[in-house]
Amino acid sequence: MHDIVSAHCLDLFAGTGILGLEALSRGAAFVSFIEQDKVLTQHLKILLQRLTVTAEEMEVISSDALHWLDRQSAAKRYDIAFVDPPFAFDIYPILNKIAENKIMNENAIVYIEQGEALVPEHLPKSWHLYKHQKSGQVHYHLIRCGR
């Protein structure tokens, strides 16, 4: 993984929160968990309390990803984003909104899991796909964010 220690991370489409939890276990300073399913967000809050993760280390928000992104600005920036939407989801509006709102620091990393390979030409202008792998039906992507 990219340099997780002291990183501010975004776990978009958090689901069970496994990617953000792994980041916290590796020394991330803060994780924002964004998940639309209210039952999953409640379970995640309970789990984080049991693990004694403090409010200074995380936030759990029950929201649609695009709706949440619409309310964000560059005042809060992330070093790493984990984006793991449902397989049939159109990822490009999400990626464009992340870039448009400038919520990623320069040289930040975006990790994406999805059911199809990304088309580099459809990525935000200053973003660069630098790693892609496939395992079964899952495509894994690492993107470096520029300015």
From TrEMBL:
CDD domains, per database record: AdoMet_MTases
Entry-linked PANTHER family: METHYLTRANSFERASE
EC number per UniProt: 2.1.1.171
Keyword match Nucleotide-binding: no
GO molecular function, one term: 16S rRNA (guanine(966)-N(2))-methyltransferase activity
Pfam family, one: Cons_hypoth95
Record-linked InterPro entries: RNA_MeTrfase_RsmD (IPR004398), SAM-dependent_MTases_sf (IPR029063)
The UniProt record lists the keyword Methyltransferase: yes
Top-level EC class: transferase
Keywords associated with the record: Methyltransferase, Transferase
Protein name, UniProt field: Ribosomal RNA small subunit methyltransferase D
Source organism: Candidatus Berkiella cookevillensis
